[in-house]
Amino acid sequence: MRVLVTRPEPDAGALAVELQKLGHEAVIQPLMEFHVLDFDPAPLKTAGGLIFTSRNGLRALLERFDPAGIAGCPVFCVGAGTESALRRAGFQTVAAVADTAERLAGEIALRAAKGASLVHVTGEHRAFDLVRALALDGIPVATLRVYEMRARSAFESALVEAFEAGSIGGVILMSPRTAEIFVTLCERHGLFERAKSLGYFCLAKSVSNRLKPLDPVHVHVARKPERAALLKLLPTPGQDPVRQDADRNS
Which of 165, 183, 167 is nearest to 175 (CA)? Predict the structure, then answer.
């Protein structure tokens, strides 16, 4: 199957390699571009705990700030990949890891030191309002915006031609905002009818929900919001792309 990979680089290239190993052909078209913002690192130096809900937060932080002086600060993060990146960056105490920001909020409520000044190192756009969730538990969190993911304004012409020729079989979508951008660009290019019949492989229900304007026929949602679970949704080469109903969500 020719599968559209919508992730930003360098993640798109890494995912394309995994798809190739599974016998699929990746068509890379990032729908967002990573940009580091100017930020004041002062809150980091007095923080009693840091929160990372994506690796991009750490990536942006490392481009502008040497974390050596805060390496002992407890960190809370979403995803095993973010945890590994934090340890490689020198952070010594990963206090909690969860597979979603919502679940991480619960872990922080249980594990954060009472009265600790927590800082959420994040981007301009967030799918889940973690700060608000923790405020309901009486835990104040400061937000430090360190990066922005800028939406693409159009598909590349070669991708539009591929859609029109019917040579794209599936689309991988890993965030609600990416799904929104995809729908917007399909409308902009007049591709709604073509897009309805594609197979959509979504990291979570919150992602697939954003596809509703397309009214797609084949939507598959990972059992867990993890890359491995997402890749299991893809048909093996030669298999009918419509997976068993247990993995479908139309």
Answer: 183
pLDDT one-digit tens code per residue, 197-222: 999 999 999 999 999 999 999 999 99
Q: Which DSSP symbol is given to 74? A: -
Query: Considering the domain 2-31+152-247 in this protein, what is its CATH number?
Result: 3.40.50.10090
Q: Which residues of 103-124 are buried (b: 16+ CB within 10 A; e: fewer)?
A: ebbeebeeebeeebebbbbbbe
State how far the alpha carbon of 241 is from the alpha carbons of 15, 108, 171, 175, 220, in Å. Answer: 19, 40, 12, 22, 10
Report yes or no: 211 and 179 within 8 Å, Cβ to Cβ.
Answer: yes
Cα separation, 127 vs 107, whole angstroms: 18
Q: Which two tokens stand for residue 190?
A: 């007049």
Q: What is the pLDDT of residue 240?
A: 52
CA distance 173 to 201: 6
Query: Per this entry, what is the length of the chain?
Result: 250
% of the chain residues with pLDDT over 70? 94
Distance (Å, rounded) from C-alpha 43 to C-alpha 143? 9
User: Hey, which CATH number is domain 34-149, 3.40.50.11930, 3.40.50.10090, 3.60.150.10, 3.40.50.1820?
Assistant: 3.40.50.10090
Angle, helix 55-64 to helix 80-88, in steps of 10 degrees: 20
Confidence (pTM): 0.81
* Domain residue spans of the chain: 2-31+152-247, 34-149
Question: Do the domains 34-149 and 2-31+152-247 match in fold?
Answer: yes
